[in-house]
Amino acid sequence: MSEALTSRFLSRGAALVVAVSFVLAGCSEMLSRDDFAARVKDKSDSEVAKLVGKPVTVDTSKPDQVIWIYNSRTFNIEGGNKFDTKTIVVFNKAGSGQLKATDVNFE
Q: In a 3-state reduction of DSSP, which class is residue 41?
């Protein structure tokens, strides 16, 4: 294989890898703690799923509370943009029985 052809093949491969990375990154948008909390606070579970995606884990062990856990979705601007391992959204049942996001915690 000629050197020019090899170089062209490698640059196309690199471009493909970059493009796939952007597509996959779009599935799990990284947000600052403040932006994530603003998107989910006081929203229903279906609204949260639409706005930030489905969680990795769902805890339904308490009767009036549901906890959604996201992995590596937020970062702490005040902490030097350090990534959070977990982002925890706490839903409580509203008067109508519908789940509403009432708290967001970061670990």
A: coil
Q: Which CATH number fits domain 30-106: 1.10.10, 3.30.1450, 3.40.50, 1.25.40?
A: 3.30.1450
The 10 Å CB-count burial string (b at 16+, else e) for 18-44 is eeeeeeeeeeeeebebeebbebbeebb
CA–CA gap between residue 37 and residue 49 (Å, rounded): 13
Instruction: For residue 29, report the phi and psi dihedrals to the nearest 5 degrees.
Output: -60, 130
- CA 68, 22, 6 angle in degrees (round to 5)? 145
User: What is the value of pTM for the model shown?
Assistant: 0.73
pLDDT in tens, 56-102: 999 999 989 999 999 999 999 999 999 999 999 999 998 888 999 99
Q: Quote the tokens at residue 82.
A: 């350090």
